[in-house]
Amino acid sequence: MNFDRHRRLRRTEFMRDMVRETKVAKEDLIYPIFVVEADDVKEEVPSMKGVFQISLNRLHEELEEVKAAGIKSVIFFGIPDEKDPEGHGAYHDHGVVQEACRISKGLYPEILVILDTCLCEYTDHGHCGLIDPDTKDVDNDSTLPLLVRTAVSQAKAGADIIAPSNMMDGFVTEIRKGLDDNGYSHIPIMSYGIKYASKFYGPFRDAADSTPSFGDRRTYQMDPANRLEAQRELESDLEEGCDMMIVKPALSYLDIIRDVRNNTNVPVVAYNVSGEYAMTRTAVDMGLLEESVIMEQMVSMKRAGADMIITYFAKDICRMLDEGMK
Predict the structure, then answer these.
(1) CA dihedral sign of residues 117, 122, 127, 133
(2) FRET pair for 165, CA 20 to 30 Å: which of 2, 32, 78, 262?
(3) Model confidence, pTM
(4) Tell me, what's the pLDDT at 209?
(5) What is the rounded CA–CA span in Å between residue 180 and residue 224?
(6) According to the 3-state scheme, what is the secondary structure of the chain?
(7) Percent of the chain with pLDDT over 70
(8) pLDDT tens figures, 277-322
């Protein structure tokens, strides 16, 4: 017989462990947390079972779970009491995510804190920047100074990483300059520069109360049909000084994650978004899929080239790893 014996390396558990090419570790995971300003709130997001909006005065409960699970990194999203056209809460020194950061650093300084840098959670229209009164579209250049103010206020609050998600042209270079000019040259930028105008964000917008009140975000987020455009965004952000690159969403964009991996040596982050979470969570809870499919999804993102994964499944994955699942 003349053929290859591939099954030799699959014969036992130990053998399979030894030759496994891709592994998921707790250190890979970043857990999103939605923080509200109002007191004494802990409400499950209806479209995201197991994910909660939680008050600043109860944030310690969530952080205790994060710490106990072994999660090393969190990213905070804020839901302010009041919103306005300019999104003042985003760049207030005592805004909700700035205060969440201070609480986290006070309780668990070893947990790495990433802050989302955008205006959509703070504007009353739900868009990621200032609205031009004539075009009714987001005004790119007038929004940039507000993003810089937001990033600087977040660095001042103690953020370890700034993660701009607004998709304005030039946001990385402006934020980098703003951080450097204010004494934060040591703070890295994790750019959401490859962010598609996806329909998988619906549950997040419920959780963050950030659904646009008119129009959509297609004039600043990317067309899901485009692959080369991601390369252009990557090149711009690298030139402007980003330290890490996010691809969002993840599961329907594994080809993009691989392209980014092949074209840069900065760390690549996959954002396993809310719609992906909701679909899988529902299928597992209904018994349509085994829970181990969650780990298979994480492995697929790592195999595509992601170094880190932002995922609402972080607690579940930590438990699976503790139970020996690979």
Answers:
(1) negative
(2) 262
(3) 0.95
(4) 76
(5) 34
(6) CCCCCHHHHHCCHHHHHHHCCCCCCHHHEEEEEEEECCCCCEEECCCCCCCEEEEHHHHHHHHHHHHHHCCCEEEEEEECCCCECCCHHHCCCCCHHHHHHHHHHHHCCCCEEEEEECCCCCECCCCCCCECCCCCCECHHHHHHHHHHHHHHHHHHCCCEEEECCCCCCHHHHHHHHHHHCCCCCCCEEEEEEEECCHHHHHHHHHHCCCCCCCCCCCCCECCCCCHHHHHHHHHHHHHCCCEEEEECCHHHHHHHHHHHHHCCCCEEEEECHHHHHHHHHHHHCCCCCCHHHHHHHHHHHHHCCCEEEECCHHHHHHHHHCCCC
(7) 100
(8) 999 999 999 999 999 999 999 999 999 999 999 999 999 999 999 9
Q: Which two tokens stand for residue 231?
A: 């390369």
pLDDT score for 290: 97
Per-residue pLDDT, averaged over 138-147, amounts to: 94
pLDDT of residue 9 exceeding 90, the answer is yes
Q: Which residues are catalytic?
A: 195, 248
- Side chain identity at residue 226, one-letter code: N
